[in-house]
Amino acid sequence: MISAEEFYKSNERQGFLIDMDGVIYSGGTPIPGAIEFIETLLENDIPFLFLTNNSQFTRRDVVTKLERMGINVEEKHIFTSAMATGRFLAEQKPHGTAYVLGEGGLILSLHNNGYSIVHSDPDYVVVGEGRTLTLEMVSKAIEMILAGARLIATNLDPSPRIPGWNKPGISAVIAMLENATGRKAFSVGKPSPIMMRAARKELGLRTAGTTIIGDTMDTDILGGVQMGYRTILCLSGWSKKDDLGSYTYCPDLIVNSVAEVPIPDNNPTELAAAG
After folding, report:
1. Predicted TM-score (pTM) of this structure
2. Which residues are catalytic?
């Protein structure tokens, strides 16, 4: 196993952006070693954020879900694509309006960033995860986009395409809207630099001190590579070792699970001396 000194090779303060499903848990059960890994980060005051593309839930919702698995963190440790989307729109057009195809986490983030949710003449049509999507809502969104509203996706995650999963992924909904309107959506979530950069800044880290841990080459690892972050692929989730030959980029480190992730030493005295 590679040592922390060999892997990080930087005098910068180190921290992590961590995907959840496939890295920390699978099917509602913690992946072996995940609880201990997070406890080690907390005990050693190593900054980290759980990074999720799911815009459906609030920070509080995610914290509760993790607590029920024995993973005790605070809301400050959660960063969602809904949060990134709300902040991005507030920067682009302060105090704007949005028609939302999505749920609580996304709506709360937009409200927290000064946005009003409207049902006519919006500045943006914003699409996130949801269980209440209807063709009537899609038709309304198409009409709004054709009238000039800009199309925003919290992410472009596809449906898992497995038996028993009958919900379309956001990418399917966006494809429908793009095809019907001829307008392209702008995606804010992973692997977009918008979310990846915002999460790093949330932790107060520099690029050289940021490592992303994920299980998906197309989002976590791609986003990290594009941003110049260190990347660690966990084989406990979606992407497998046999898949790597299909990509033109590769992670900096491949591990079976987070239990094998090297822990950096953020000793202030040593960092100051090295700097």
Report:
1. 0.89
2. 19, 21
